[in-house]
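Hi support team,

I've been running sequence recovery on a batch of backbones for a student project. Most finish fine, but this one hangs at about 90% for roughly twenty minutes before it completes. I'm not sure whether the input is malformed or the queue is just slow. I've pasted the structure tokens below so you can try to reproduce it. Let me know if you need the job ID as well.

Thanks,
M.K.
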């Protein structure tokens, strides 16, 4: 999965470089290429990346719950 994400990211970067080149040369399909690149990033690459990063519950340390709030307020009072 990690290799697939790296390949997908390289494809996105190349896609945007080609799109930027087409925009600078005022090619008729330049806006379509750039738009498809943004759609690729938004609806294909980012959801797969987010799933890969948070699939093992790594996100739980960033969630604020009652226990973390109590500990935070206890530490504030000690200063």
């Amino acid at each position: 999965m990690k290799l697939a994400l790296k390949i997908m990211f390289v494809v996105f970067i190349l896609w945007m470089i080609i799109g930027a080149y087409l925009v600078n040369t005022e090619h008729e399909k330049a806006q379509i290429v750039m738009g498809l690149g943004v759609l690729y990033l938004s609806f294909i690459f980012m959801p797969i990346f987010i799933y890969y990063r948070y699939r093992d519950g790594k996100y739980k340390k960033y969630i604020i719950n009652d226990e973390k709030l109590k500990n935070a307020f206890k530490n504030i009072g000690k200063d």
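--
Follow-up from support: It reproduced on our side and the slowdown came from queue contention, not your input. Residues 30-54 form the longest helix (25 residues). No action needed from you.
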